[in-house]
Amino acid sequence: MTLKRKRPTWIPVVTGVIKRENKFLLGQRPESGSMAGVWEFPGGKIEYGESPEEALARELHEELGIEADIGDLKLSTTHNYGETGILLLFYEVKYFKGTAKPVHHHEIKWVDRETLKSENLPEANKKVLNKILDMF
After folding, report:
1. Residue 71 binned pLDDT confidence (cut-offs 50, 70, 90)
2. Listed residue (129, 17, 112, 10) closest to 73, CA to CA
């Protein structure tokens, strides 16, 4: 008897790398959700019918209250959290209108390269952090 393997669940996620004056913007995940308290590059899941760029613009508005000009796709990677896989797309965000504020996140902050390396980031971000720093 051949066992049929369950097809894994994949979630497409967009992330904005926002850099200003050699500092990167991070948001702290809220206490009420998964990975509570972890610092992350802002972004989120792509909803059905959205392009990655549309999804990131929507997420940045929802999470930070900004109107962002989504730049180029800089990096794509995958990561598994248990039975769920994520396809993670990192976009450059050079310009935005408004003042970033923690609408969704518990807190936001700007950190330099060295501080970024020591932050409590999601595993999916940690494994590609050196590539991100090389690109930015």
Report:
1. very high
2. 17
CATH T-level assignment (fold) for domain 9-135: Nucleoside Triphosphate Pyrophosphohydrolase (3.90.79)
The answer to whether the CB of 92 falls within 8 A of the CB of 136 is yes
Reported as half-sphere exposure (CB side, CA atoms, 13 A), residue 72 has a value of 4
Contact yes or no for 16/64 (Cβ under 8 A): no
Q: Can you tell me the distance from the alpha carbon of 39 to that of 4, in angstroms, rounded to the nearest whole number?
A: 38
Residue with tokens 């494994």: 127
Exposure class string for 32-51: b at 16+ Cβ within 10 A, else e: eeeeeebbbbbbbebeeebe
85, two tokens:
């896989």
pLDDT at residue number 88: 97
Strand partners, 15: 43, 90
- Please say whether the dihedral angle defined by the alpha carbons of residues 115, 20, 45 and 85, taken in this order, is positive or negative: negative
| Per-residue model confidence as pLDDT tens digits over 24-51 | 999 999 887 777 789 999 999 999 999 9
